[in-house]
Amino acid sequence: MHDRCNNSWKPFWPSAYPPNFASDRTDSAAMGYFAILCALFFCVISCAVGGHAMGQSQQAAFEERIQPTLNQACVHCHGPDVEEGNLRIDTLNPDLVQGADVKWWLEVLAVLNNGEMPPPDESELTDDDRSQVVQWLARELQRASSLRRATEGHSSFRRMTRYEYNYALQDILGLPRDFAKDLPPEAHSADGFQNSSEMLHMSVMQFDTYRQIARQALARATVLPAPAQGALGEGPAVLYWGISMEDAARREWRQQEKKLAEVRKEFKEDPAQLEVELERLTASFKSSHNKPYYRELSTGRTALATWAYQGAKYAFEPSASPAVMPTAFDHVAVIPDGRNQKLIVELGDQVPDQGIMRVRVRASRTSKEGTRAPSLQLEFGWRASNEGRADVRVSTADIPVRATPDSPEVYQWDVPLGDIYPRNSVRKISQMGEIPSPSEYIRLVNSTASQGDLQIDYVEVIAPFYEQWPPPSHSQIFIDSENRENEAAYAREVLAAFMPRAWRRRITQADIDQKIRLFEGMREECASFEEAMVEVLASVLSSPHFLYVVQEETPSEIEQRKAETAGDPELVSQTELATRLSMFLWSSVPDTQLLELAFDGQLSDAEVLAGQVDRMLADPRSQRFAKHFVRQWLDMQLLDFLSVDSKTSRLDPQLKEAMQLEPIVFFQEVLRNNESVLNFIHTDYAMLNERLAQHYGLSDVYGNHFRRVNFEPSARRGGLLTQAGLLAMNSDGVDSHPLKRGVWLLESLLNDPPPPPPPAVPEIDLADPEIAKLSLKERIEDHRNHAACMSCHAKIDPWGIAFENYDALGRWRDDIDGQPVDASSLLFNKQELDGMDGLKRFLLEHRRDQFVRALVYKLATYALGRPLTFSDYARIDQVTSDAREEGEGLATMIQLLVASDLFRSR
To answer: pTM of the full predicted structure?
Structure first.
């Protein structure tokens, strides 16, 4: 079995890796220690069937073989005379089942396995002795973890996070709206996750807030009968704006005509000079501009597209009937590339409060040549006065404009007006033309990162827009039925169709009876059946049965679950499994297909469950998983708070947005192709858009959309470690920050956080002229020489120094202030890290197992919605071992996690 462990450990390099990246050298001291732990899992289960406490044979083995080795190698630094790191190795309780020192033993295993301890210059520890201690610890920790799992309880009892709650309402109501924007964000647990049961409690006040949000959401999803008619009618009055650029430019042409008239008047007595002046002025009217302007195609004349908020001079009146988009046109508005290039189309003060605003724009590039496609973005805003204004981006994604001038195309956005905040608060108070101005507008933005003008000839706005009446969200709740005239019977049908999806379980007659009593009590106070039912359904969506992901069980529910799980009290029920799976992969409630399989008891079938995982990962809703897991795993809230100051840092909004998206779309690419998770450490491609490629110095990448870009090793990119956003968020805004980058690597990627600094740690004294003359690396080394700082910094500094070729914004640099960058360092065990290339090599050669296990650990923590404990470690190791055996694909890892007892247990 020992040979099998060593053979299974041989490095598996991802196919995208440069062939010469892996060193042929192996380190016999470090090779395979973690693999020993994983392989021993299969032989130690038999050890777990004995007594819970440490047996006499195990105690004897420890005293005979392990304790003498530890005493010889460790006690001089961790004993009665010297107690470095607050650890005394000679007093640790070797009973890992009932003893209180398990966390210390886990730390001992980690530092021995990683070769960090004992320091090479402090003590000798032979490979055989190290292997013996690691094997004993691996065996005993696995045994203790299995036994503790059987005796300790775990609780994933928690409410939904804000984002889960929002997605759940979106999916149930069929509306992609921001329902939870007024809820506060969740805190992060010690593991970095927002969905941890440690954090997600509920107060009485919160229940009331959820009730209000549910009522508002249902009001947006449904429509009520007109009071006078008692029926839904034909829908609300719709307003239409149809704006040609000929109409928009007419104001500017009048200004030009006025200037021509002034010249004619001034030089009417001098025909020769008049001709010269008219020719000069006319020629100036045909020049291009670096700001949005109008162009008459037949004559070539142009004029800047001006706008001012006073007097409502630029507002267009809506119509009660649809406008017809003309097939031919002679005027366009040109929006050049570059920052703040925006065309304002003012709509006045009649834009509705709620409903969909549909915006349609006929547009094209300005040139027939080339393949670059400028991007179009939509904003909504207003300016009431010099002191009051707002501009809000309302398009979720940039639209590439690929149409040519001779074949323009129509591009469209559907904007939920109820999600726009803030709106102009005086639009129902002031009159048009007064100050403060009540008017509102849309802004069409050329958001391309490079050269690429675009032109628009027609803009259409419809509000509120409905594809059909009543809208599908209403018909989905108020289903078609022969019992519509029988309110009591119809109310039962509506509840029977709505409640199972919301509560994620079978609905009993008693559940419906309770809601019917609520309906009957409210019906007389409501003007219509629909209004009363909205109140009842709001109670469904503010119930703990909806708000809580995992709930406390009644005795009858416990018995039912035992029946579903063949009497195994540890396994979750089928419906709980469906909810856990959908929250994991969709951050939302199960869909109908998943629930029906749960109701039929089919999710216990391994093939059915695996098929559902495949289906759910292929669904667009899995992008939520990528977004929220990656952001929490990598602690990307640090990037959110990175200030955008283009004057000092050259970090413009486009670049920051690209930085925020890169890790997420990279994760999606690895997941979609089931690539090895080692690609997170290094690969020969990146997911880039034009702005990010510019930042990395890569050419021939155009457009704001992300795509896979392959590159040579000279690009010095690949994997997470060299992504600009992750580097920038771990800088100080001015320069790199080795400590932040080192701590982030240890915490997020290796799940090996350093200990917190001791109190009263001295800071680097930059006022000292001798220290100020030192390089950053020399300052860190000087700081590390302080006795109080050494234990922490020796573990952190070498990792962070390896990032030194990347500046505060993650750009590659060869020198700092004229001095060559020195990114080489020595780990605590004297192994060298030579810059980013050396860091990647070291991680793949010596910390591969640790990284894979760390990712399994993070995925499991997120999937279960609770902190993992020591009793979970045996199952984490099992999933890690299985993932290694099957090639370490990310999708495979997720499949193995979902199939594991850990995921299917309470």
So the answer is: 0.83
